[in-house]
Structures are given as C-alpha cells and as structure tokens.
Amino acid sequence: MPFDEIFPRMPAGETRKVHTAGTHRIVPPETTLARVTPFLPVMGITRVANVTGLDTIGIPVVMVTRPNARSVSVSQGKGVTLAAARASGVMESIETYHAERIAHPVKFASYEDLRWTHRVADVTRLPHRADGTFSPHTPILWIEGMELMSGTPMWVPFETVHLNFTVPMPPGSGAFIAGSNGLASGNHPLEAIVHAIGELVERDAATLWHLRSAAEQEDTRIDLSTVGDPLCRSMLQRFEDAGVDAAVWELTSDIGLPAFLCRIVPREDLPRHSVRPASGMGCHCAREVALARALTEAAQSRLTFISGARDDMPRGEYLRHLDPAAVARWQRRIRGGGGGRDFALCPTAPGRTVEEDLRDQLARLRRAGIDEVVAVDLTKPEFGIPVVRVVIPGLEGIADSPEYLLGDRGRAIPEHPAEGHA
Fold first, then answer.
1. Residues 359-368: pLDDT tens digits?
2. Is 256 left (phi over 0), alpha (psi -120 to 50) or beta?
3. Helix (H, G, I), strand (E, B), or coil: what is residue 375?
4. Sign of CA dihedral 388, 389, 393, 397
5. The whole model's pTM is what?
6. Residue 264 CB neighbour total at 10 angstroms
7. Which of 43, 205, 321, 396 could pair with 251 as two cysteines, CB 3.0-4.6 Å apart?
8. How far apart are the first and last CA of the chain?
9. pLDDT average, residue stretch 192-203
10. What is the pLDDT confidence band of residue 77, given thresholds at 50, 70 and 90?
C-alpha cells in the first residue's frame, strides 16, 4: 500500500535524499532551521546554545533549553557541522514538545475489553517494567496509530507514546517502559518514521549486544584503520588530537541494519579525572551514517557531562563515572586491542529516497519475526512539522535500568556476567 494512503495528511513531494553529509535528509539542515525557527517561542524554546567550545574535541554540539517542559527541559544536538547540530537539538526539543501535548482522542479500557472491537498491538511483546502493574483486565489509556506492515489502524498503550510526566499521571501508568525511544521528527513524515525505527532498532541491538559475553563483544570491535569514510575519519582524528582514546564496536543484530557503539575516554593517566568516559550509538541503513552518529553522540555525551545541563542526570551518575576505578576499567578495555572487524565488511544498504529506506527497514523487521510496526502521527497542524512516535512490539527496549524486564529476544541469549552498559 502506498504510504500516502496510510497517512492522508502526508504532503506530496519528492523524498529523495538531498543532504547526505553525516546524515540523510531531504533538505539541508539550514533549510530545516529556517522553517522551524519562527515556532520556537510558541513552544517555549528560549535558548539554542553552542557548547562545542566547552570541550577540546571540536565536534559540534548544542544544547536547547525549554524551561516549562513537561519532561526533560534541556535537549542536546550533535552533527558534523554546527548547522546540523543545531537542527538536531532543535528538532529533538520540538518532538518532545509534541509528545508532551498530545491532543488526539484516547480510550480508557482494558485490553480484554478493547481487543474485541479494535485492532490492538500485541502488548505481551512491548517493553515491560519488572514491577509493572499491567493486567489484561485493568483499564488503561490507549491511542490509535497506523500499523505500517498492513496499512491498517492499530491501538497502543498511551503510556508508550506520551512524554507528559507531570503529576498526577494518567490512569494505569507504570505498566510499560516510558521514555522517548521511538520518538522522532523530520522534514517529511517518512523521514521521521525512518529515524524513529532506526532508533528503536539501535536500542534493541545494544541490549542484545550487552547480554553477550566479553569475548563475544570483543569479536565485534572495529579496526578503525579500515574506516574509509572521510567524515568519520576526520572525527576520529579530532578525538586523537584532543587526547581522547576511542573504540568502536559493531552492534548490528539479526535485523541487519548497521549499528555501532563508540566509547571514548581521556588518555592521560591521572588519579582522578574531571571529564568522565562517554559513549554514543548510531543506527542507519548506511553504515557510514550509523558510525557518524555513534561518534557524534559520544562527543555529545561527554559535553553533556561537562556542561552539567541535563536535568535528568542525578549527582550519583556523575560520581559513578568519575570513579578512578571506572575510568581505569574503560581505559583498559579501549586500549586492550585494536579491533579485528573490517568496517568495509559491515552491512550497508542505503536507498536513494527515505521511502526506499523505510521499505527496507520494514522488510528486515518482518524477516526477523517482527510483524507490527505502529506509527502514531503527533504532527500538529498549526506547525506542520512532522512528528511521529513509533512502537514496535517484539523489539527490546533500553535495558540499563533495574526496572526493565527482558523480552523474548533478550531471554533467548545465554546469560553471562553483566559488565554494565557504560
């Protein structure tokens, strides 16, 4: 089924990729910024700050402040250029604003009541909390999305879509993992959907990778000398010049979308560091874009710590990463080997258009046993900025929390002593 039939409000127009430097977009980041900037005051965005100079690496990072947010009030953006970083941070703040203020109709019903009259997502395959309160007979809020495999409407728990964390919370809250995983914006609805799916696949791949043994993980380490992409090479050189050791591991799962983890740590051997180790991940149909995202996110994560701007990072998080033993552990692992995996042999299958990327993503998910991909259109007509929340039953969520309950994909991996997700 054509995607413009699934999303009647989808604008007509070419979805050909025009901007391909570090990311794939249908317009350059400067065009995106020019389009959305008039709406920033309405959404409460008061500041877009270039914080790149607070660190020595030089990979562009910005912070975007929205003081009256109903979830996180500071968003970060990163990119291979300052314009790309600004667009990244601004669009993250915009999509969060949309998810905090959902005006769509919702239903209050139990799963058992709703499933007889509506098509409902397989809630047993959604990321659950270990202490969750979900019961098929307990009423919760539901919201309608579009299931992309079949092109038909499907209802998902509202808790998996919204980001309004003001109290009191909606009825039935606490059953599923809540967060921003799968929330995305773009210059076109399909661009937003592709980005959201990539993020969900990335988090699933990371959870599965962290469940592997240390030896299995090390087998996936990339030999950085085999990275031929000029942009990625230039960012690796920035780490080197700044005295920062970097290592990259391939996370790609059975779904086959390229995914990478980058870890960075200060090179100097000091008894106590003022800058913590950091990591970043990336997933994309094009392997060089997936790697670029991992590298830029690692730089962004380090700058987030330096700036102290995030309102969702407690003091204990800073202290944990500044522990000399933790820093030494990171240094040993990063310096412990050069990696044996050839980057050029990692999968890659970028399409000419974002629509081709979406069709490829859906085909890969279907082959991996995923048969429901639900997109909830959160676009507000008054702004016209495409925002979606994608929910994919069957994929693992972010498993670095004690509240997370592993799903079928995670439980299928033999247990190994956990080293943690740092």
1. 999 999 999 9
2. left
3. strand
4. positive
5. 0.94
6. 26
7. 205
8. 42
9. 98
10. very high
